[in-house]
Amino acid sequence: MALRKFGAKIGKNVIYRQRTRVKYPWKLEIGDNCWIGEGVWLHNQGKLIIGNDVVISQESFITTGSHDTKHSMDLIVRDVIIESGAWITSRCIVLSGVKIGKNSIITPGSVVNKSTEAGNIYGGNPIKFIKEREVI
Length: 136
What we know:
The protein has one helix at residues 2-5, and strands at residues 9-10, 15-16, 21-22, 28-30, 35-36, 41-43, 48-50, 55-56, 61-63, 65-67, 75-77, 80-82, 87-88, 93-94, 99-100, 105-106, 111-112, 120-123, 128-132. The chain is an all-beta fold and 136 residues long. It has a 7-stranded mixed β-sheet, with no helix packed on it. Strands 1-4-7-12-15 form a 5-stranded parallel β-sheet, with no helix packed on it. Strands 3-6-9-14-17 form a 5-stranded parallel β-sheet, with no helix packed on it. β18 and β19 form a beta hairpin. It is globular. The N and C termini lie far apart (34 Å).
């Protein structure tokens, strides 16, 4: 995988689909057994850490950066952590400074502007708790 040659830490059995973009490979860590879907954009000015067994579905956008809109418009960078077992479904937006809890699900088209608790389902714009995830 070419990303490794540019400093990305990529685990075993990672499936990385076409049309996916990565801003800074050397700030990317992906665990084992992950799926990164078509057209995913990892806009990682800061560190982006993705645990094991994570799915990031088609056309999702994850960013570690924003701007100081109150004073200077300076770039503000805050890391994003996606814990093991999480599923970010299609066309979600994950904003800087967020931690997606272990085994969480983010429903399609959601905007994740705050961290989530482990084992729950969230959705909407901005996200809201929907229900506990029923794991069999």
